[in-house]
Structure formats: structure tokens, C-alpha cells
Design brief:
Layout lengths: L8 H4 L2 E3 L13 H9 L3 E8 L5 E3 L6 H4 L10 H5 L15 H7 L5 E5 L8 H12 L4 E5 L2 H10 L4 E6 L9 H7 L2 H7 L3 E5 L6 H8 L4 E6 L2 H10 L2 E4 L5
Parallel strand pairs: 1-2, 1-9, 2-4, 4-5, 5-6, 6-7, 7-8, 8-9
Antiparallel strand pairs: 2-3
Helix pairs in contact: 7-9
Length: about 250
């Protein structure tokens, strides 16, 4: 298992999970949250889905219930309509931004773009994200729990930096068979990522130890307390964090 060589920032830059957000700050995955991360000298991790018009938009959930108190489904709503919904009910936070708008606002900040899939099918989201990421001149990578998504970029857009996200327990929306496969080295070889991103609660693992020994970088997600930060420092190269600052 030989890691694909990637940029140095994959080892060095802490990423603010969905931007710097919180109860007393801007909402998650909002332009103000990303601006706050940039101002604090951190990189950014964000989530991306397809709007109804095929535009990649930055939002974690499949609907707006949690982030805006509305039932609108992202996949059934055009990007312009999503942009008009105030996140967290705060007009100053703006609405759901497009990926292109976020990257334009972060020209010099490392960004991890996590692709959110509700099932096992892939291809449409990847094909829409690839040209947006490729056109960005700043440091950026794509990441996914779905090994097929990472493999898609290896085959169709090999110039894009790839991160395979791993977990010790299936995330909501991640089929159990996919979660089991994620632990297999054969999947890592097929996806040929530049880095791994592993749930901090499951570190260390044999896979991440072998990966790091071979020179591959590991991100630890999501670090929310001092214990998680200590685990990330001991068993990974950089954290994806919220609540606690690295």
C-alpha cells in the first residue's frame, strides 16, 4: 500500500469543520463561517451536494430542516432558491452557498470538499464538482466515505487531490457493506488517495499506522475536545476540528 504523493499542506494544516461556527457565531457551512476560519489562519472542511439544477452547493444534510428550519430537500431545490434561505434564520449569514462561491472566497486557504452521497450511486456529483475544483487555483482536495467516489476522481480527474474518509462505525447514509470495505487495504489501493481521513474515535488502527509508516498523511475527524486533540496529535498528522481549537 503505497500512498500517492500529495501536497505538503495535507500534513500541516488544521481544518475547521464546516468552517468556524457555533451557537455564538455564524452557522455551519456559511460564508461567514468560512471567512472566520480564514481570518484565524485555519483551513476549511465543507460538505457538498447537488441542487436540483445540477449546481454543487455547500450543505451537509439532504434537507434544510436542521440548518434553516425548513423541509426543503436540497436535491429538489434550485441553487438560487437555496441561496435565498437564511441559514440559522440569520439574514447576515446568507443562504446555502454554491461551491464555486465558497472557493472564490477562499483563494489561499486549504479546502477539503467532502462529497455527500445518500446511497451507493456515484458519478453525477463527482462530474459536477470536478470542473469547479479543477478551476480553483488555491489548495483544495476532494474527500468521501464512498470509495467509488474517490476512485472516480482517480480515473476521470487524476489531477485533483483525493482523500478517502474512514470510520470505525457506519455514518448515517453509508451502507454497512461500504463501511466494512473501507477497512480493507484493497479499497485504499484501488482509490489511490493522497491522504486518509479517519474518525478520531477509532484511532489508531492498523491501516492508518501502516499508511503513515509508508509516508501517507492522515487527518483526524471530528476533534471536539482535549482528548480528541491528543489522539489526533498522537495518531494523525492534522485535525479536522470544531469547538476545541488546535
Amino acid at each position: 500500500m503505497i500512498p500517492t504523493p500529495g501536497p505538503a499542506w495535507l500534513r500541516d494544516v488544521a481544518l475547521a469543520h464546516r468552517g468556524l461556527h457555533g451557537p455564538d457565531g455564524p452557522p455551519e457551512n456559511s460564508l461567514p463561517a468560512f471567512a472566520a476560519a480564514r481570518a484565524a489562519g485555519h483551513g476549511v472542511e465543507l460538505d457538498v451536494r447537488l441542487a436540483a439544477d445540477g449546481v454543487p452547493v455547500v450543505v451537509h444534510d439532504a434537507d434544510l430542516a436542521r440548518v434553516a428550519g425548513r423541509p426543503d430537500r436540497v436535491a429538489a431545490t434550485p441553487s438560487a432558491a437555496l441561496a435565498a434561505v437564511p441559514l440559522g434564520g440569520d439574514p447576515d449569514a446568507g443562504g446555502v452557498p454554491t461551491l464555486a462561491a465558497v472557493l472564490a472566497a477562499l483563494p489561499d486557504v486549504p479546502v477539503m470538499v467532502e462529497l455527500k452521497h445518500d446511497g451507493v450511486r456515484r458519478g453525477g456529483l463527482e462530474a459536477a464538482v470536478a470542473p469547479v475544483v479543477a478551476a480553483h487555483r488555491g489548495p483544495v482536495c476532494v474527500a468521501s466515505f464512498h470509495p467509488g467516489a474517490v476512485t472516480w476522481f482517480r480515473r476521470h480527474a487524476p489531477e485533483v487531490v483525493r482523500v478517502l474518509t474512514l470510520t470505525h462505525a457506519p455514518e448515517r447514509g453509508v451502507p454497512r457493506w461500504v463501511a466494512r470495505l473501507l477497512a480493507e487495504r484493497a479499497v485504499v489501493r484501488a482509490a489511490a488517495p493522497h491522504a486518509l481521513s479517519h474518525d478520531v474515535r477509532g484511532l489508531p488502527t492498523g491501516l492508518t499506522d501502516v499508511w503513515r509508516a509508508a509516508g501517507g498523511p492522515v487527518y483526524a475527524w471530528t476533534v471536539r475536545d482535549a482528548d480528541g486533540l491528543a489522539a489526533a496529535r498522537a495518531h494523525a498528522d492534522a485535525p479536522i476540528f470544531e469547538t476545541v481549537r488546535p
